[in-house]
Design a protein that fits this description.
The chain has 64 residues and is an alpha+beta fold. The chain has one domain. A 3-stranded antiparallel β-sheet has the order 1-3-2. A hairpin with a 2-residue loop joins strand 2 and strand 3. Helix 1 packs across helix 2. The chain is globular and about 35 Å long.
Length: 64
């Protein structure tokens, strides 16, 4: 079974932006391919590989 979750760092590299840009975008609900959930004082991030590719057109190779 293929894992369908991307890391913030991997997405930032693919988009050629900073990790902070991705985190803030997810926290603000700007990206339709992932979300941020605040757990106590920290956020946890989920980025769907399938939705990321559908919305950005960026093909993702194997997840590292």
């Amino acid at each position: 079974m293929k894992k369908n979750r991307l890391s913030v760092g991997h997405v930032a590299e693919l988009m050629e932006v900073s990790e902070q840009f991705v985190r803030v975008g997810l926290q603000q609900g700007k990206f339709p391919w992932g979300y941020a959930v605040k757990m106590s004082s920290q956020y946890t991030y989920f980025i769907s590989q399938q939705k990321f590719t559908e919305h950005t057109g960026i093909e993702v190779q194997e997840i590292w």
